């Protein structure tokens, strides 16, 4: 006679094992350091995101040239270049026909050859709420700022942002204009080394409430900061300000963190760890995070070398920076990905970055620009290549125009010269 009780037990065990197996197989795996985080993102269907122009435009060319960020669809550009062989200078140019042609460039900095632009320590250009255009850069031992109040036809003499006279570094700067027009500059600072772990920096911030005529007293936000990973600034609709940096602990673990200010940078919350990856590195990766806020969501993307492999990772906060959900790696099969730049478009995070095609020369082909989109719910689209001129691409940036237009810029290093490049595209609905 069949033993029904025994058979039921066997069936129950089998059902339990099958359930466990099915659950495990359908989970997303993350690094050991991210056990506290949420599941990684799902890969969405492959579809073309942008219609790019076939051949990008050359904004300018020269030695030691580095294009940084444009201000608006008015096509305002700044870049550092060694045009006179006496060190780097900062140049401004613009276009009144969305990039068909560009005006003759002119120098912004007062002291010839004073600009220090290398890697992520590059100049920044931002558009004010009116006619103002603002530029900030590392010049000598100081952080310099200049503004144009005539639509970019000329810039006023520069002023210092840092309020000290110490012969130390003030560099790796970021700048954003708040919803009320206040200008904020964040940077890495060599002051007060005795307060920090050896080999780390302090993070400072300064603001201007008079359209850049002057800056207020510098505010120290944090110490023990990775000394060459640029901080990132952004705002939500309520005027809360968020700043990110790469924190270093006593064991050389480097982890991206975020702090929030609700009073224009006077006070800051305790740092929130975006992940717990604990990338141990006795050195600086020269790569900061990119961060943007829209529709109640704070997106952040950053470079990580944990596990002895290069990757771009992403996370999202749905509670204004109080906690973060780890989304996963966003570069797909692209090799050597780095330097992500986020632009929010219709509630989704569009990320441009540089990397190598794994199918080109066994993964050692030219560094190219790539674009990936993260949906508002965290879903991930596969990365797609952006057209380039055939040189090696460095430090790409992305910005949204009107009428469905989108623009990408980068520095492209070729055999003959270094070029500042603009690529124009139209969003595909």
Describe the structure.
A hairpin with a 5-residue loop joins strand 12 and strand 13 (183-189). This protein has one domain (41-427): Neuraminidase, CATH 2.120.10. It has 429 residues and is mostly beta strands. Helix content is 5%, strand content 43%. The chain is globular. It contains one helix and 31 strands.
Quickly list its features.
429 residues; mainly beta; Neuraminidase; five-stranded antiparallel sheet; 31 strands; 5% helix; globular; disordered N terminus
Estimate the strand proportion: 35-45%
What is the architecture at the second tier of CATH? 6 Propeller
Task: Estimate percent helicity.
Answer: under 10%
**Average of the residue pLDDT scores:** 87
Text of the CATH class:
Mainly Beta
| SS class | mainly beta
Distance between the termini: 67 Å
Summarize this, please?
The protein is built from one helix and 31 strands.
Q: What's the topology here?
A:
Layout: H1 4-25, E1 50-52, E2 57-62, E3 66-67, E4 76-81, E5 89-94, E6 106-107, E7 115-116, E8 124-127, E9 133-139, E10 142-148, E11 159-160, E12 170-177, E13 183-189, E14 201-208, E15 219-225, E16 232-235, E17 241-248, E18 253-261, E19 272-273, E20 279-280, E21 290-294, E22 297-304, E23 311-317, E24 325-329, E25 335-345, E26 348-356, E27 367-374, E28 384-385, E29 392-400, E30 405-413, E31 418-427
Antiparallel strand pairs: 1-31, 2-31, 3-4, 4-5, 5-6, 7-9, 8-9, 9-10, 10-11, 12-13, 13-14, 14-15, 16-17, 17-18, 18-19, 18-20, 21-22, 22-23, 23-24, 25-26, 26-27, 27-28, 29-30, 30-31
């Amino acid at each position: 006679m069949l033993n029904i009780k025994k058979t039921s037990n066997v069936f129950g065990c089998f059902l339990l094992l099958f359930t466990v197996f099915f659950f495990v197989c359908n989970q997303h795996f993350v690094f050991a350091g991210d056990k506290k985080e949420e599941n990684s993102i799902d890969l969405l269907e492959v579809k073309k995101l942008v219609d790019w122009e076939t051949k990008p435009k050359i904004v300018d060319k020269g030695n030691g040239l580095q294009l940084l960020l444009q201000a608006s669809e008015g096509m305002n550009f700044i870049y550092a270049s060694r045009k006179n062989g006496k060190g780097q200078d900062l140049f401004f140019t613009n276009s009144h026909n969305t990039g068909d042609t560009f005006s003759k460039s002119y120098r912004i900095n007062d002291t010839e050859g004073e600009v220090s632009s290398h890697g992520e320590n590059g100049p920044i250009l931002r558009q004010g709420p009116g006619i103002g255009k603002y530029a900030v850069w590392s010049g000598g031992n100081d952080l310099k700022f200049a503004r144009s109040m005539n639509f970019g036809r000329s810039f006023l003499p520069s002023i210092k942002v840092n309020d000290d006279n110490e012969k130390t570094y003030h560099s790796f700067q970021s700048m954003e204009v708040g919803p009320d027009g206040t200008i904020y500059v964040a940077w890495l600072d060599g002051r007060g080394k005795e307060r920090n772990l050896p080999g780390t920096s302090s993070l400072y911030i300064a603001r201007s409430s008079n359209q850049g005529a002057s800056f207020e007293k510098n505010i120290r936000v944090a110490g023990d900061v990775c000394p060459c990973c640029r901080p990132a600034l952004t705002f939500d609709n309520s005027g809360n300000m968020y700043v990110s940096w790469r924190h270093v602990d006593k064991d050389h673990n480097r982890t991206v963190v975020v702090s929030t200010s609700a009073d224009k940078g006077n006070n800051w919350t305790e740092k929130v760890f975006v992940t717990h990856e604990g990338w141990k590195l006795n050195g600086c990766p020269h790569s900061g995070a990119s961060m943007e806020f829209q529709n109640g969501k704070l997106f952040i993307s950053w470079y990580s070398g944990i596990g002895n492999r290069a990757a771009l990772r992403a996370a999202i906060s749905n509670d204004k920076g109080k906690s973060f959900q780890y989304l996963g790696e966003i570069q797909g099969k692209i090799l050597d990905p780095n330097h992500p730049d986020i632009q929010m478009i219709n509630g989704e995070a569009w990320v441009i970055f540089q990397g190598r095609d794994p199918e080109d020369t066994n993964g050692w082909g030219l560094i190219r620009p790539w674009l990936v989109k993260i949906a508002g719910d965290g879903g991930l689209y596969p990365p797609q290549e952006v057209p380039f001129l055939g040189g090696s691409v460095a430090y790409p940036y992305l910005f949204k125009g009107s009428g469905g237009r989108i623009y990408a810029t980068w520095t492209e290093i070729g055999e003959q010269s270094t070029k500042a490049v603009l690529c124009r595209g139209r969003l595909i609905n």
